[in-house]
Design brief:
- The chain has helices at about 60-70, 85, 90-105, 105-115, and strands at about 15-20, 25-30, 35-40, 45-50, 120-125.
- It is of the alpha+beta class.
- The chain has one domain (about 10-125): 2-Layer Sandwich (Chloramphenicol Acetyltransferase), CATH 3.30.559.70.
- A 3-stranded mixed beta sheet has the order 4-3-5, with helices on one face. The protein has a two-stranded antiparallel ribbon with strand order 1-2.
- It comes from Caenorhabditis japonica.
- InterPro entries: Carn_acyl_trans, Cho/carn_acyl_trans, Cho/carn_acyl_trans_2.
- One of its GO terms (cellular component) is mitochondrion.
């Protein structure tokens, strides 16, 4: 910033797109506008529609209500669903191979991955990590 110019060009990568791992290089996958977002709360992943069946976009108040209701639920992720986010922390080659092995080669998991990768965006709605004298693990 300082004396330099600022650009918002990179914002185009925030919505309706996904970084996809390749064996040697990642690529950015552009998607058509999506009618859903993905919310992650305490390890549980939710697909949330952002418009009704007639295509009317939900108001901010409606989306806040939906999000608040999800945060009150006592859902618990099970099985591989608890590990989805950790796949993206792998090295590129491992991420590429694990994505293929656990998602692309499995019909059910491939469908779940498509929901995540085609979302307008993915956001964590977990509470405050309470930064301070204690570590985040505590």
């Amino acid at each position: 910033v300082g004396d330099g110019l600022m650009s918002t060009r990179h914002y185009k990568h925030l919505y309706n797109g996904c970084r996809v791992p390749g064996k040697e290089y990642d690529h950015f996958q552009w998607n058509p506008p999506s009618p859903h977002v993905v919310l992650v709360h305490e390890g549980t992943w939710y697909k949330v529609d952002t418009c009704d069946h007639k295509g009317r976009i939900y108001s901010v108040n409606e989306l806040v209500k939906i999000t608040a209701e999800l945060m009150k639920r006592d859902d618990k992720a099970t099985g591989f669903m608890t590990k989805i986010a950790s796949l993206t922390t792998d090295r590129r080659t491992e991420w590429f191979e694990n994505r293929k092995k656990f998602f692309l080669d499995n019909k059910h998991n491939r469908k779940l991955l498509k929901i995540i990768e085609t979302a307008q965006f993915v956001i964590s709605i977990d509470g405050d990590l309470k930064w301070g004298s204690k570590t985040t693990e505590e």
